[in-house]
Amino acid sequence: MRGTARKISIPRCFIADLMRASLDVPFVSLVRVLNVRDLMEARAAAARPPGWAAIFVKAFALVAKDEPVLRTLYVKWPSPGFYELPRSAATVAIARVVEGEDCVLPQKISTPEIKPLAEIDALIHHAKQAPVEEVAAFRKALRATRLPLPLRRLLWWIGLNSGRQRANYFGSFSVTSVAAVGPGELHAVTPGPFIVSYGVEANDTISVVLRWDHRITDAALIARTLCRLEQVLNTEIAAELQADRQQAGRAVRAIAT
Q1: Contact by Cβ (8 Å): 86, 73
Q2: What is the domain class of 10-244 according to CATH?
Q3: What is the pTM (predicted TM-score) of this model?
Q4: Residue range 150-177, pLDDT digits in tens
């Protein structure tokens, strides 16, 4: 059958490079339904509720704060080993349109464990709404993708095999979801060691998929991580939302008087 040959666009080229870089990671998945009733009540009462992506970015970073393994990368240079980071660095998958084509680009969020939820949500919102060239992480990714193939391969090799650069390029964990367009479990891949994805919330629960690099840890720790994640969502995250609501209420009363 005769078809039409098309050149690979820059957005699809970036995804192709990303998938090539992810081939070596032996991912394993664990799916669990979390009861997040307290969080949902606090979020429903919030004046400006943050998006779920921001919530999961901060919640996972808070869990990783007390568990160094969740801040650990597998690197190959100068020899295979582990590289433990002092802080978390998240990447959030953002759906955008570049040069008229749908694509996904990563927005990096450093030290989310110490950032207010509102700030994390604003960074994600900016990545969704601002012109692509105004988002630093997008601009760097697309600029690198426009390089000739040998230079691109070298840049990716450096980013993947040096612990410090791997953290700079890919972070310590990623958050992604297709919940905005309906139900479904997303088992994504990235070069990073941990990927959190979540489904559509219903009946005070939300389905979470946690994928991890099996070279770094085993399923028992991941199971405990999901238990701890549920606890953090219903305590620290819910408490922050409640505190923001109370602060907003005091501000309104102060203006009224």
Answers
A1: no
A2: alpha beta
A3: 0.91
A4: 999 999 998 888 878 888 888 999 999 9
